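Practice problem 4.
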């Protein structure tokens, strides 16, 4: 008799339509610089970000997601609805899996997905849900930038991140260094291109000067460095 005979297998809800699944996620976000979708929540709900926002010379000091269109009532309403689904909807994971496996961008299946173009993980449970979604969408590379180093470190002690999920720890301070955690990569926000000379570093092409070899203007173009676990650090130019 197999020793696994009594193991419980996760049963996912089988949605019939995108509309029925969308009722459990509200909507995906559509970051303008990227050729894919994301899932954003309010930056006002960030844990570590809220602390860093009150300090000088931090990446979060002048947070882009706390101003501009992000503070419009309809945008905040959408961000808060997504967060509510994450916390309270038992079918959120199932619905996200269905949507990501079915969703198209420019008539093509998704191959990339960004978590939190606004906001950050709320708990280890939230992180675990993202990992579950990544495992069930193996044809998509997921990128999760985060400053919640305590949550990530605690979670990584007892869990292994899916191969298609790149958890990238962001440095707190501008021109600073990010905390390195096993199974993750890092990123830094810098005031000039080329500050990180390490061979494993990649300078983000967005906002880079005209001499930069990967110049794409203000879009990602065909660059997928942020999703790549083999690129151990990405440097973003402060703008």
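Answer key:
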């Amino acid at each position: 008799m197999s020793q696994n005979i009594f193991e419980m297998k996760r049963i996912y809800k089988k949605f019939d339509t995108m509309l029925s699944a969308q009722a459990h996620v509200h909507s995906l976000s559509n970051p303008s610089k990227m050729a894919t979708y994301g899932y954003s929540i309010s930056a006002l709900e960030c844990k570590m970000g809220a602390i860093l926002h009150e300090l000088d010379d931090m990446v979060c000091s002048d947070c882009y997601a706390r101003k501009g269109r992000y503070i419009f009532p309809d945008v905040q309403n959408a961000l808060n609805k997504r967060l509510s689904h994450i916390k309270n909807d038992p079918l959120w994971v199932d619905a996200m899996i269905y949507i990501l496996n079915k969703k198209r961008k420019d008539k093509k299946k998704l191959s990339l997905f960004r978590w939190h173009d606004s906001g950050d993980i709320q708990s280890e449970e939230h992180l675990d849900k993202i990992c579950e979604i990544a495992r069930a969408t193996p044809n998509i590379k997921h990128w999760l930038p985060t400053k919640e180093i305590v949550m990530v470190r605690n979670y990584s002690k007892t869990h292994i991140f899916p191969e298609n999920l790149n958890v990238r720890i962001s440095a707190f301070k501008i021109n600073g260094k990010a905390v390195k955690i096993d199974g993750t990569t890092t990123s830094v926000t810098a005031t000039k291109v080329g500050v990180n000379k390490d061979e494993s570093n990649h300078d983000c092409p967005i906002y880079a000067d005209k001499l930069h070899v990967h110049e794409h203007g203000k879009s990602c173009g065909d660059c997928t460095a942020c999703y790549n676990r083999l690129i151990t650090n990405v440097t973003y130019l402060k703008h």
